[in-house]
Amino acid sequence: MNTKYLLATACSALLVSTAMAPAVRAQEAKEPFTEFEAMELAPAWDAQVDTPTASAPIIYSGGSIIVGWEGVSQYNAASFGRNFIPPDTNGAVGLTQYMETTNGAYAVYNKSTGALQSMVSDVSWWAAAGQTGANGDTRIMYNAHADRWIVESFGSSTSQIQIAVSNTGDALGGWKSVKFTGYAGIADYPTLALDNNAVYIGTNNFTTGGSFRGTTLNVIPLDSLFNNTAPTVTNMKQFVTAYPGTIDRGYAIQGVNSDATGSTGSIASSSLFYDPYLTYTVNGLTTGSATGATLGVQAYLDPGVYAVPGAGRQPSVLNPRVIDTSDTRVSSSVYEVGGRTYMVATVDPGTDHAVVRYIVFDSATQTVLDVGDIGDATHDYYMGAIAVNALGQVVITYDRSGSDPSDGKISVMARTFKTLGNGTLQQTGSELLLHVSNSNDYHNGSLDGQAAAGRQRWGDYAQVSVDPGTTHGFYLIGEFAREPNNAANGHPGGTGGTRWGTWIAGITAGSVPEPASWAMMLAGFGFIGGALRRRRYMTA
Asked: Which one, of 54, 56, 143, 62, lies nearest residue 105 by Cα?
């Protein structure tokens, strides 16, 4: 089993960001992180594998939501003998398909209708791609330029990272794969990002006994993976940052996704030694090789005042506040568009409620341009994910829950934004309710109707993807709670544990942005003529 961690710093004290210079605080390292099971096996008594019929896909006739359907559930994963919590919810959209990965099962859907095209166990999928075993923490992306998919996860050992690349743009076609040692212990929480130069995979490193030992940033030339023969890591560069140590390269390291021509590799992360977030660059990448690459100096970002969030609320009598909202790490993909970098994290702004905080900063100067919270005084907002298209339109998805029985069930939500000329975000339209949980009392590891036992794992992440086939389209995936696994809910022989489900939705971020934002975006992408033609067409 792989391990993950929480910040062991006191969650009740508010954290202040970059008001104090790093030199002054250089010795104020965060305490070591406590570990927990990443692919936690569901209790043996809850091994019922009945697979109920999922809700039918919904095709919407108008508005921001285009299509929505239920993805892989814990019932599906258990039917393959892969009954794990949490799902590590992830997915990506291609030209005609949506592919989902979870701990236990992978699935491919028609992106226009939500029709299921394939669902297999994660172990079987990797075997077909040429690897033995799978230990979860999977992430997936689609590269529109190459018309290829890329998937990464643990290998048969949690010290290994395995990568698969599709032969074509068809997710049901053949795949080729490669693996490497991420860390001679546990290379935990592997992340995934790519730009026009390289693929970036960050890991948090633990001993097999669970002691935190630092991080690794793996930089692999893009053409080493997306070639016509087989993926290779021969020219990969591994940047290892030891803990304890004096260098801060962050934890839960996220590479920055960018389509910009000539983009320089960038990294965004939660700070390891200080309270704020940080960013730095990967310099010296050459065509086909990362072996001569170096890392730039860290720049600390001021995200405002925050604390580690507490447990999420739900309208349950026995388990009113047990949902794990994770910690303040950057858990989802980070995007760079038009010289600006966008990311989200879950924090407590000092209200004892979790919120999803977005941060936008200038990629060149590392100046923070905008910080905003998605949240309110009666709900918890957590497990956020973000994506940004070429026009600076933004979609953020998240889970929301609260104590009120009328609207407190864990729900998959989303909001759309546009980037203004000064780099700030302005919400467009209303908050989108995509799916509501079947249960108001989610807890894994104890019987339905009993108090929750153990840590109530949730997530550990969500994902938003830019639809490569449209101008304003996005697809997203998040987690919700299925009904308890018992006879009363149509599962004869089930012993009553609640189960996770996933929800996939296609949405549109709206029409062309306002003129000031439009001109700003065009200047950074070099497609003025074609874009103006589209604008005239829309006006007509």
From this structure: 54
The verdict on pTM exceeding 0.70 is: yes
Structure tokens at 112: 């226009």
Hey, CA dihedral for 436, 440, 443, 448, is it positive or negative?
negative
For 446-481, the pLDDT digits (tens) are: 788 889 887 788 999 999 999 999 999 999 999 999
Contacts of 170 by beta carbon, 8 Å cutoff, 6+ apart: 97
> What confidence tens digit (pLDDT) does each residue in 360-408 have?
999 999 999 999 999 999 999 999 999 999 999 999 999 999 999 999 9
Nearest to 480 by CA among 504, 464, 463: 504
Bridge partners (DSSP) listed for residue 161: 154, 180
Helix (H) or strand (E) holding 121: strand 116-121
pLDDT computed for residue 294 by the predictor: 95
State mean pLDDT over 233-262: 92
Rg, C-alpha atoms of the chain: 22
Q: Which residues pair with 316 in a beta bridge?
A: none
Fold classified for 3-509: Methylamine Dehydrogenase; Chain H (2.130.10)
Identify whether the C-beta of residue 213 lies closer than 8 Å to the C-beta of residue 187.
Answer: no
DSSP-assigned states of every residue in 207-250: -TTS-EEEEEEEEEEHHHHSSSS----TT-EEEEEESSSS----
